Amino acid sequence: MKSSPIVCYTFKEDEIKALEEYRDQQEDFRLKRRFIIFLLVIDGVLIDTICKTFKISPKTIDNWFKQYSFKGIDALNTFSYVKKKHFYKKNKSKIS
Questions:
Q1: What is the chain's pLDDT, residue by residue, as a tens digit (96 residues)?
Q2: What angle, 0 to 180 degrees and rounded to 10, lies between the N-to-C axes of helices 47-54 and 58-71?
Q3: pTM of the model
Q4: Helix, strand, coil shares of the chain as percentages rounded to 5?
């Protein structure tokens, strides 16, 4: 299994403090758990253990880390879903 980018990243002290503050201020648990997961990774908890505990895939953590890397910590504090494209298109014509 390839290593997750978040495991290779070294978080600075101010980033850790910001993650803790966001965790403590967030009321929606679905968003709060993102900060909890990041802090667990920083504490050295294995990705596999985190994924089993929170019932998420490693890809989810990678996606959150990508958002964090490119858009900053505020990107973790919102639901910004990208609609998945369907593999089919609706056929507008009626079958006779």
A1: 567 889 899 999 999 999 999 999 999 999 999 999 999 999 999 999 999 999 999 999 999 999 999 999 999 999 876 656 666 666 555 555
A2: 110
A3: 0.80
A4: 60, 0, 40
Largest CA distance in the chain: 67
As a residue count, the chain comes to 96
Tell me the CA distances in angstroms from 4 to 19, 32, 48, one per residue in order.
Answer: 19, 21, 10
Tell me the two tokens of residue 7.
């495991």
Answer yes or no: are the C-beta atoms of 65 and 6 closer than 8 Å: yes
